[in-house]
Design a protein that fits this description.
alpha/beta, 15 helices, about 325 residues, 6-stranded mixed β-sheet
Length: about 325
Amino acid sequence: MQCCSTVPTLVFAVKSVHTSYGRIAYFWLLDMASKVILAVFVLCFYGCLHDAAGQNTILWSVDDRESGNRSYLLGTFHQMGSTWVDSLTKVIEALSDAELAVFESIDPAEDLAASMNRRPSDFSYRDRLKSGDVEWLEEYTANWAVPLEKLRPMELHWKLNQLKARDVCKTSGPEDRFDHFDNYLIYIADSLGIPTVGLETDSMQADMINEKIGENTWGALRRVIHGDVRTLRLGREKRGSCAFARLYMDLKIGDYPLDESCDQTGPVIADRNRAWMEELPDLLRSHRCFVAVGLMHLFYDCGLITALREAGFVVMPVRDLRG
């Protein structure tokens, strides 16, 4: 498949598949652990983006012929600031017109933090991570709602990647009331009195991340977490790691790889999509919905776009989101 000429080609150098987890791979596949986490933002974009004449949207209309309902499906890059979101006029209009807003989860962050804080403390990271990284991390995370000794390796990597997007890629800034796309949309829905539904709980998400990715150990992720720490300490982009964030912010997504196999993403994307499709069709037939989920859930032959079309819905890209 041809790629946009402005996007560097991502070369996947997979050393082992036993820790592979495609949803969270982020920018460059440094080793097996980076493929595990970092695909959430970039996995297919570098290899699968078409030219600038592609679909270039993150919003899709979903029409049900029988009920006449028109709903909308939004693919989010979770760590985006509210000022940028406000610039997407058609996204805000689609949400405002909805009878029901559907998200991956609507759980308060405090609930997941409370659950994690009930775990026993585990300081084994001190023996497995680089000593300089340990010292920096313990200071950096000192005021987190969940302390470092309560986090599992993949959860720490996930959190550090969110912070890299915000602080290094500048996906949000001090002017933003919210630094999380989905949470801001939930706030808007609540402010407008639009009922909200979660397709799963935060605890379910955490369990899937920890159970389905293979070897979730400090030793396996030592090099990847070292890379996270280095990037955050230096505060600058490394090897094009912010390229996709910029493409997303500029709405230069290109064509979606809808015909490609979902096998390359690992089990979590496909499994979650199948579970969500047990609920979504009925919601879309009975309400005008606004559905916001991570962008990766729209891709591939197991993605929600393909699944909804197979269920009889007409799914079409919505262009000119700032128009």
